[in-house]
Amino acid sequence: METFLMFLLVGLLAQSVDGALGMAYGVVSNTVLLAVGVPPAAASASVHAAEVFTTGASATSHVMHRNVAWRLWIPLTIAGVIGGVLGAYVLTGLEGNVIKPFILIYLGVIGVWIILRGLKDRKPRHVRSFWGFPLGLAGGFMDAIGGGGWGPTATTALVGAGKEPRMAIGTVNTAEFFVTVAISATFVWALVTGHWQDAGAIRDHATAVAGLIVGGLIAAPFAGWIARTVPTRILTLIVGGLILVLAVYQGLQLAGWVP
What we know:
Number of domains: 1
Number of strands: 0
Largest sheet: none
Low-confidence stretches: none
Distance between the termini: 24 Å
Radius of gyration: 17 Å
Mean pLDDT: 82
Helix content: over 70%
Strand content: under 5%
């Protein structure tokens, strides 16, 4: 019960921030799961299983609040699904100890990037819908590999390129539902075909996954409202700092310097 409540709180806080920033639920949840010893592929699969529920609720909220740029959403979603499937396939074929150092480096870079985004007030530039294709491919692939790279990749790029923040967040979050379903389906396929050997770790941490789902579902319906009303700069710095601290701690664990 203690584990469930802890991860319910993680899911609640992460999804609340995700609604305001268009990022955080996946990357924060994934880093916490890695920190408690879940293998990378199992951690990513667990996060995406939870996100099937939370992104559906979040997407519905953003659509209701008219936070979606549909012309950009189409190429972003199609490319995101393709990139996500490729990333999940690659991740399930690699040993956890081999891929984990690279994921920690990636999470550290993402944490620094998010902090810099919070510190700088960058002027927006024009962005065309065509850029949804390469952005979706990169975001989907990194999301599957890192367990939460879709928002940090896609949202920050769109905001930096000139999209109104709430439209960027709403478009990315709405596309994320389909990307998450595709990644989760790939993990299931890898399990059924015997391509993935670490799937048992999800069963061992089912209580944590359930907590992530419930916490995320509580906060997700408010995503559209949060994106329209909550100041983002402080939340950006908090998320970036949290990701960076967790990544550094996991790196020290991997090196054997901390228990």
